[in-house]
Amino acid sequence: MAIVFILVVIKMVKFGGFFFVFFSPKFFSPFVILFFFRNKTPTKRILYYIMEENDDDDDDDQREGWSSSESLRKGDDDDDDDDERPRKGRRREVDDYHYVFSADCKPYMDWQSAALYQSWIDIGSPGEMTRLLSCTEEEYGRYENLEMMPTHKTPDFSHDDPSDAYSAYNLPGSIKHWTQSSNFTRRKWVVKLDADMILRKPFTVREIPAKIGVVAAGYYGYLSGVKNDMAAMFVGPAVRERLAQVGGWEIFARSDIVKAAPLWFEYTRKVRRDPRVWWPYKGTGDEFITKKAPRPWISEMYGYVFGVASAGLSHNVNNDVQMYAGSKPWNAKSANSFVIHYGLKMSKGTEYEWDKHFEYAKSETEKDKLKCGKENRRDLFPVCDLYSDDDRSIDKYERNRVELMRECVSKINRGILLARKRKCMPKGSSSSSSSSSSSSSSSSSYEDRNAAKTAEVEKTLVGGSSHRSSSVSVANMEDRSYKHARVTIGGGARVQQQQDAATNQLWKYAGILWTLTLFVLFYGFWPSRKTGGRTRRKAGHIRP
Fold it and tell me: What separation in angstroms does the CA of 113 have from each of 42, 101, 140, 282, 538?
């Protein structure tokens, strides 16, 4: 009996609710289970994600081709659930991507990390995101924001050369460390971003072509050393044929980034330490080198270009995926870019000006936007006003430029507010009473001022806000995103980030319902129950 019971449970898990409907159509309970799998509610999505996100068998069948999930129907309308509904045995195509970026333990990087992470949540949390955190042991010992988001800890690589403190070593160093650890991804694609970026929609090789051996990347025209005599200083003729002026963001096939990471770090070291490319050499395209600071800051970018080409990889160069905040779009694609990069100064005439580098002039205490306590609260960043609709002298791309600036800074402020609330909210406090405004949860006077403006901004964002997040409160978004706040230690076991407590609880109740149904099924239909334990008499039999 016990063996039969176990086998039936296994079959139920495999076939969902249909098993009960076939064997016991008279009971109401089976129809409840069928409802879980048939209705078009978020509950159904959660159940599917549990079954499919943990199925890694399809991760090893990556093959030559531009798309890794060709059996899913193509569609550009994000509001159509059918286009991205998970099929049995595989996840959404946009979940085949693992987003990573490099950061350190300084407050200046923390608020950027918080903003990028929140933008990833707002576009629907596709795939996974991991912060590659590079700090010294002393810094880790006093660091307060380790659990802000999924994090892979690495050593500090900025002093790889004791005579040269170069923080950009942390990017190739942490990528190499991650790819060689047990925390390395099982996703098909790896998307590398910079911390000072804001995601607007999920990356996909359906729209940004990449494949094994071909990396998709953004165009960076100032890397003039790719085309002049500088390239010959580091790589041979065969490798130079594969060089490209690229950087910022990349989409790698999983196997390709494993090959490229060690060479990326190696060539970064070579370029940074080679006096031939130091000041006064002008062939690097770096306009900021001086006699006092002779080494090119963009050495890491050349390390990437030379290293990836030396690994045998080429590039699909794309100029429409990324848009610099403050720059004017040149076509409809760039105006609806996948990501905003805020590495340059933004301005609107004489009435508005903001640059993330303004933070350099502040103290470490002033830079810390996430410190708890009323006395530590910092003003958020200023948001520019849009052009008046009545002003017909402004062309559409200039309007797009200002809209992108407004969207970018408002999303940075949103990420800071939510990260601060997750960190500082008392344990066990309820957040269900928040209003639908994404910033109404702030209680301090300065947060109220900025929250009102952020709420107004989010109503007017152009193409950047996810339809999922436009009508939910800060608190609800916070509760939904807190499941991602896990930390993995370099070399440790993988953390199943997508199986949060709420989902496990749902499975628990479903299991209880299945067990009760089985009990009723066997109790009500077992032969001994129907005959009361006595032998059934044949028709016409007369008791003696």
Answer: 28, 9, 16, 33, 79
